[in-house]
Amino acid sequence: QKKRRAATARRQHLKSAMLQLAASEIEKEAAAKEVEKQNYLAEHCPPLSLPGSMQELQDLCKKLHAKIESVDEERYDTEVKLQKTVKELEDLSQKLFDLRGKFKRPPLRRVRMSADAMLRALLGSKHKVCMDLRANLKQVKKEDTEKEKDLRDVGDWRKNIEEKSGMEGRKKMFEAGE
């Protein structure tokens, strides 16, 4: 029991020490990033000094506008280069698939289409014949069986029950039986 308690206490102590060490490392990294950011801004963005006269202010605005245009041109150029490289990568990967002989099959969707619409899609304006598939089917006559004749002759079942109910119905049944 004492050994277990000592082992768990030691494990928790090591865990807390590791967490403290990790927290201090994270703080150091954040501070280093902040210093790096400050150095970059000091190097690339000098502090702004506003001139006193109107002419100097207009010149400053013109310089800033020219700088903005040059940065936008660089950004546009890098975007175009990126698009070209992405396109080249896609072309090369397609060539690689072609060389390997393995093709990605696109997922196909089921489309309900009549025979006429299918022929029209395949043949275009050449298709003029209307294909009625049911027109070529044979007509089959249904043979009347005796049960169906009996059922037709019986007619409405309520009538038969009314006729057979009572003494008259029994008399008719008795006479029909003879």
Automatic annotation (TrEMBL):
Coiled coil: 14-102
Domain of life: Eukaryota
Record-level GO BP terms: cardiac muscle contraction; skeletal muscle contraction
Described purpose of this protein according to its UniProt entry: Troponin I is the inhibitory subunit of troponin, the thin filament regulatory complex which confers calcium-sensitivity to striated muscle actomyosin ATPase activity.
Subunit note: Binds to actin and tropomyosin.
This protein's name: Troponin I, fast skeletal muscle
Organism of origin: Pelecanus crispus
Single GO MF descriptor: actin binding
One GO cellular component term noted in the UniProt record for this chain: troponin complex
A Pfam family it matches: Troponin
Family the UniProt entry places it in: Belongs to the troponin I family.
Keywords assigned: Acetylation, Actin-binding, Coiled coil, Muscle protein
